[in-house]
Amino acid sequence: MPRKPARREALLAHLAATLFEAGRDYREPEVNQALLTVHEDFPALRRYLVIGGFLARTKDGSTYRRQQQPGSPGGANTAAA
User: Fold this and answer.
1) What does the pLDDT look like over 17-36, one tens digit per residue?
2) Intervals of the chain under pLDDT 70
3) CA 8 to CA 62: how far, in whole Å?
């Protein structure tokens, strides 16, 4: 994971755009499997995507959805149903 914020954000945006379709809900195992194709530490990637606002997550963490534009950090925990 790049340490520089601009590079990290660019990488996360690329991953979100290439691995997840907009407007589609993903169950956590689907997200994990997609991220595992990129790196073995898929939980960290998933966390960065949610914190960065690239993926929204339901409160119970079972469903994810790609965001059109990244939200503010910590603001990605919206209902996706």
Assistant:
1) 999 999 999 999 999 999 99
2) 69-81
3) 25
